[in-house]
Write the structure tokens for this entry.
Amino acid sequence: MKIAFYPKKPQKSDIARLQLSGQKDSFVFVSQTGEKILSLGIGPKDKINLRKFITLGRKIIFFAKKNRIKKIFINLDDFDFPGFDLSPYEKARTLAENFEMANFEFVKYKTNDSDRIFVKEIFVGGDISRDIKDGFEHGQIVGSMINGARDLSNTHGGAMTPKVLSREAQLIGKKNRRIKVRILDKNKMAKLKMGGILGVSKGSCQDPYFIIMEYFNGKKNEQPAVLVGKGVTFDSGGINLKPDEYCMDMHMDMSGGSCVMHALEAAAKLKIKKNIVALVPCAENMPSGSSYRPGDILKTMSGITVEVANTDAEGRILLADALTYAKKYNPKIVIDVATLTGAAAVALGQRACAVLSPEKKLSDLLVCLGEKSGDFLWPLPLWEEFEEDIKGDFADISNSHKTRYGGAIIGATFLHKFAKDLNWAHIDISPRITSIEGDYLAKGSCGAGVRLLTRFLEKCD
Ligand code: BES
Ligand code: ZN
Ligand code: ZN
């Protein structure tokens, strides 16, 4: 989508003018002067808050696409609402991020042109400052990174294998000369004693890979921020096979991985002056004669042994090795992002992701940036007492707990064992694995976490 700046609307008949109305209904009409007007009902203007503003950008695009409008003129002055205070930069950035998000459709496998309806150009009028231009530019960068993550997450498991995901990381590296990408194959992982990743992947014909992306644009000896993303390209549950419909979205179980890969790319495009690393352990979780079994004991890279109580709790086992690998960097912060537990969605619903961290300051910052960015987070506790629930009978720890309760906390408690001496936070993005009605986004992945992590990388010190 192109965004162009014009103080006044260009006199072209194919450009529709956006009008924000305080009514509920939206419609398109032609004015007496022959001008096409897209009237968007946004309800009482004094009730606009940041959460509503975040979806406003999407509603514009959603409605334009529905009416097959390709070019829109918006006047930025119309986006000042009584009692709603947001800097010009933030206003522009939020609009641009959400324009891009709403203009995305996963059409790679659609053969009909009628499925490819997009807004082509937005003309922005009003008093345009440098800040506003920057806001739009940065918002478009972040928006396109979110859509890049969605593209990977939406690609079905048969076409998005650990190998393909690794190749995607290499492609990102090819496009950005500051990003260095290395891929570890299973032999290299065996040398590093990554028994967790190797164990989980045993049942699949697809080999596991470990993606390492480095973007070093900070001071020479500055400790990096390390992002870790779960890269399970399909999660069948393994021998503890998931029941029918629960398998359906599990090609998106690498959404944490696609998120961190694109947050790092966004950092490079925004030229953030920091050292940043993204790690993605990639594997497919399948049932077969060679699968890891319930009862098996795996030795992770850390040396900690794990009793497999449930082969469907595979993500935490992969992440255990990645968190251990992260320590090689002596990181100042480690954040992992994962579709770790269905329980996170049971706890929170589908509008916020869960954040768990022993570091209150870090968790508070993430919640605050979540609120700003639109990637909403809600904290869950991570008390020491929960460690009782993952004690192993024959190994050090178990990958699942004995009760039905608090699954998201138990998952994080498991990860915490491997992050003891790190400044670490875990984000469970399962609740936002797909868009929901009212998001004004295409079906499928919504690229959860990319906006949040990008903001975090800009902010953290
Ligand atoms: N990938 C799933 C979690 C998931 C489910 C994410 C639905 C998004 C939507 C994860 O690997 C899993 O299966 N977790 C189990 C853990 C349990 C066996 C302890 C779960 O949540 O049921
Ligand atoms: Zn699973
Ligand atoms: Zn999983």
